[in-house]
Amino acid sequence: MKPTGIVTDSHSSIGAGEARRLGVRVLPMPFYIDNECFYENVTLTRQEFFRRLDSGARITTSQPAPAEVMEIWDQALEEYEQILYIPISSGLSGSCQTAGMLAREEPYEGRVFVVDNGRVATLQHRSVLDAWEMIQEGYGAETIRKVLEAYRDRMNIYVGVETLEHLKQGGRISAATAAIGSILNIKPVLQFDVGTLETYRKCRGMEKARKAMLEAVHHDFATKFRHWADRGEIYLLAASSAADPVTADWVEEIRREFPGMDVLCDDLSLGVSCHIGQGGLGIGYSCRPARPGEV
Asked: Cα 172–177–178 angle (5° rounding)?
């Protein structure tokens, strides 16, 4: 058997092709549309999801059943002695706590290591890549979990929202605020930081929201995260629930602002997109986790 494998969920935005290349298993996350259950990238296409979202369908997210989690773990443990399970942040879903409880029971205790490092979307994707790289370097599952969790706050992401409707439906803003914001063309910039999603700034129009996000990352690189930025140990990330041409234009704008840096760009998962809506654009970063003994 191979020593260490990785299981994550579809909130990581890791597609089937990359999952096969890395040898990573991805658990499809369930959600409900008008009380009917669907699974991301399995029983509903992205196009159909947004069509239903825009038509006013009631969409809610859900955590997977314990049996579904255990089934994918069992499959992975047929191939690996130990596995790292890297799910959506415990601050956004109860699925991480459920997984933690399951991992403390037989036959998973000592074989399944649940990583709770407060991440979702492209940040979660980057954590999977960090874990994969450390496995290639010979580190074991327990060490990798400790390293990833020690770096839980060494990241950030800003997301500009095109529409206020879904934030209203999710209870994050009032109906009156949404109505006034739509009239004034207000585009909030949200900030995801260690498991929470909060309003960072309110901008008049999406162009100003994009500018505000780029300025925020420049500021972070020059201040709180200067140590990693100066050493080239910071990964630049992008995320989108917008149309492909808009996403491509956003990535090019990021590359112009941060020349020489690679940009990992993902479609926001459907579970995140149901709160953000179509047209959302994000930029973030994640620091390279220091290995044991590194400064």
From this structure: 75
State the burial class of residue 175 (Cβ atoms within 10 Å of its Cβ: 0-12, 13-18, 19+).
exposed
Q: What is the pLDDT of residues 63-95, one digit of tens each?
A: 899 999 999 999 999 999 999 999 987 766 778
Distance CA 100, CA 69 (A): 11
Owner of token pair 């309110």: 202
Give CA–CA dist 199/226, Å, rounded.
Answer: 24
Q: What is the dihedral of CA 64, 70, 73, 75, to 10 degrees?
A: -110
Q: What are the DSSP calls for 69-123, one per residue?
A: HHHHHHHHHTTEEEEEEE-S-TTT-THHHHHHHHHTSTTTTTTEEE------THH
Answer for the pair 92, 120: CB distance below 8 angstroms, yes or no: yes
pLDDT band at 185 (very low <50, low <70, confident <90, very high): low
What is the pLDDT, as a whole number, of residue 168?
A: 42
User: Rounded mean pLDDT of 127-147?
Assistant: 97
Q: Are strands 36-39 and 59-61 parallel, antiparallel or unpaired?
A: unpaired
Q: Between 230 and 274, name the one with better pLDDT.
A: 230
Distance CA 220, CA 293 (A): 26
Sign of the C-alpha dihedral computed for residues 289, 230, 155 and 272 taken in this order: negative
| Bridge partners (DSSP) listed for residue 8 | 26, 86
Strands (DSSP E) along the chain, which ranges? 2-9, 25-27, 30-33, 36-39, 59-61, 80-86, 112-114, 155-160, 186-193, 196-204, 234-240, 263-267, 281-287
Please state, rounded to an integer, the average pLDDT across all residues of the chain.
Answer: 88
Cα(293)–Cα(291) distance, rounded to whole angstroms? Answer: 6
In the block, residue with structure tokens 């006013």:
56
Q: Give the other-Cβ count within 10 Å of 186's Cβ.
A: 18
